[in-house]
């Protein structure tokens, strides 16, 4: 018989969303929580996504900025990145895949970490497969599912057998292949292509099913990224499909190592076909929610798809309001910071319900992950956005106005010679508020939060005139946008 233990809250999945849900659920109330994790506490973001990818991207951006700066340019022209040093710094940020620091944090927050694979087996009950034998956990208040998502490999003949790299390999690469094919045109594909080129890939081909990169962004933003990737040497093939893949001696050589000999890939469009040979294939063609082996059937749910939740993050279709889902697993906004946001809301809801408090006020309702989501894509140039694109705003029936200007202010001129960037606001003419914003250019990431505050706060444009940007910073582009709208 399995050992049985009781907690107030049981969280399956120890990534950032699950960590936040557990921490907020037990904060200040003497409640207990168990965090069940089968891999590393800290999850995908800490070891295979956000942290290693940005550690790989920053050195290339710093070098590009140096090459654009008189007085520095002569020191770096013609000199490549020190790949070994870049990878060592990346490994420092992932702590060599040692999660002991994350475990110590959890314990300090009053959360018990349980190693193993957790799945639902009934009402408020989780079974954990672990090396020491099965463990049954019962939750007095709530069970939270925070199992994230996993990369998908499209059903192309020979592709899976070729053992291509997924996002986990390309963020944890230990050698730089000379010839790479990147399959996909979204964030992972574009960021991967950016750092692979910076690290010295000689031939890089991007194969994109659609007609643009970053299709969920404003069209002009993706066009800027296409232009720059091509300048850096990428070959980008739009409206192109993989026909088949054949690889010499594929082998599971380990995460981030080339998985065999050269791969021959057939490509086709509606009118043409060709074959390319590469040393590695990076598949960045989408992700699936981590619901395959969660025991959802035991509580009347269907596995294999994202879990539908209300704005308290409670899973629809489960009586009693005890089951929650946060992060990628619910499909609302597959971004680490939004998963953490959902975890905070969910944890506060659980704590309030456990204490018998009413769920009054916006603190207990997730709304930003609907139409107010911020994101930065760390390509060259960076693409930062929040809220609705112009097309989305029109589809939502808003009285849409848009205004755009080049980022040509004192701050951008000082940033580097030949600075090139653009900013756009999407406005609801009926309320005279900002509902979306996009910034494209070097080092624009820090502009996004001001736009997020404006969107979430529904700040009228007349009020924004009094939010005076400091001089000389790139934030002065806000004044240029308001002036352009004023006419």
TrEMBL record:
The residues that hold FAD are 54, 118, 147-149, 328
Cofactor needs? FAD
Cofactor binding summary note: Binds 1 FAD per subunit.
A biological process (GO) of this protein is:
2-oxoglutarate metabolic process
Q: Give the UniProt family note.
A: Belongs to the class-I pyridine nucleotide-disulfide oxidoreductase family.
| UniProt protein name | NAD(P)/FAD-dependent oxidoreductase
Q: Which organism is it from?
A: Speluncibacter jeojiensis
The record places domain Pyridine nucleotide-disulphide oxidoreductase dimerisation at 373-478
**Where do the annotations place NAD(+) binding?**
184-191, 286
Q: Which Pfam families match?
A: Pyr_redox_2, Pyr_redox_dim
Q: Which GO terms describe its molecular function?
A: dihydrolipoyl dehydrogenase (NADH) activity; flavin adenine dinucleotide binding
Q: Which InterPro entries match?
A: Class-I_Pyr_Nuc-Dis_Oxidored, FAD/NAD-bd_sf, FAD/NAD-binding_dom, FAD/NAD-linked_Rdtase_dimer_sf, Pyr_nuc-diS_OxRdtase, Pyr_nucl-diS_OxRdtase_dimer
Q: Which UniProt keywords apply?
A: FAD, Flavoprotein, NAD, Nucleotide-binding
Please, which domain of life does this record's source organism belong to? Bacteria
- Domain (FAD/NAD(P)-binding) spans 7-343
User: Which cysteine pairs are covalently linked by disulfides here?
Assistant: 45-50
């Amino acid at each position: 018989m399995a050992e049985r233990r009781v907690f107030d809250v049981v969280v399956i999945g120890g990534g950032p969303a699950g960590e936040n849900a557990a921490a907020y659920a037990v904060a200040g109330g003497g409640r207990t929580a168990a965090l069940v994790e089968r891999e590393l506490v800290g999850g995908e973001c800490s070891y295979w996504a956000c942290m290693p990818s940005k550690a790989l991207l920053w050195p290339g951006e710093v070098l590009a900025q140096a090459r654009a700066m008189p007085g520095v340019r002569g020191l770096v022209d013609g000199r490549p990145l020190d790949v070994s040093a870049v990878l060592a710094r990346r490994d420092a940020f992932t702590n060599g895949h040692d999660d002991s620091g994350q475990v110590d944090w959890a314990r300090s927050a009053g959360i018990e970490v349980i190693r193993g694979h957790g799945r639902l087996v009934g009402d408020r009950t989780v079974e954990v497969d672990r090396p020491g034998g099965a463990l049954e956990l019962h939750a007095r208040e709530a069970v939270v599912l925070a199992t994230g998502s996993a990369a998908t490999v499209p059903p192309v003949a020979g592709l899976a057998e070729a053992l291509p790299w997924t996002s986990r390999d390309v963020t944890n690469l230990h050698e730089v292949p000379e010839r790479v094919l990147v399959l996909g045109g979204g964030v992972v594909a574009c960021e991967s292509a950016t750092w692979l080129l910076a690290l010295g890939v000689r031939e890089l081909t991007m194969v994109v099913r659609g007609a643009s990169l970053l299709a969920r962004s404003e069209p002009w933003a993706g066009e800027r990224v296409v232009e720059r990737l091509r300048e850096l040497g990428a070959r980008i093939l739009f409206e192109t499909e993989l026909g088949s893949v054949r690889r010499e001696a594929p082998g599971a050589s380990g995460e981030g190592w080339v998985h065999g000999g050269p791969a021959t890939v057939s490509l086709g469009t509606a009118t043409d076909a060709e074959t390319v040979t590469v040393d590695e294939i990076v598949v960045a063609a989408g992700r699936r929610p981590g619901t395959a082996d969660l025991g959802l059937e035991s509580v009347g749910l269907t596995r294999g798809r994202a879990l539908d939740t209300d704005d308290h993050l409670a899973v629809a279709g489960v009586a009693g309001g005890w089951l929650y889902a946060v992060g990628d697993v619910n499909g609302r906004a597959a971004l680490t910071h939004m998963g953490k946001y959902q975890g905070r809301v969910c944890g506060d809801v659980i704590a309030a319900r456990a204490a018998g408090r009413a769920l009054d006020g916006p603190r207990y309702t997730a709304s930003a992950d609907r139409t107010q989501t911020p994101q930065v894509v760390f390509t060259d140039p960076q693409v930062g956005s929040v809220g609705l694109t112009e097309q989305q705003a029109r589809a939502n029936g808003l009285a849409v106005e848009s205004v755009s200007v080049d980022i040509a202010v004192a701050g951008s001129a000082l940033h580097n010679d030949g600075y090139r960037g653009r900013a756009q606001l999407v406005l609801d003419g009926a309320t005279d508020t900002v509902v979306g914003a996009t910034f494209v250019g070097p080092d624009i990431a820090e502009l996004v939060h001001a736009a997020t505050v404006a969107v979430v706060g529904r700040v009228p444009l007349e009020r924004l005139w009094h939010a005076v940007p400091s001089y000389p910073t790139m934030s002065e582009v806000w004044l240029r946008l308001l002036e352009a709208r004023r006419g």
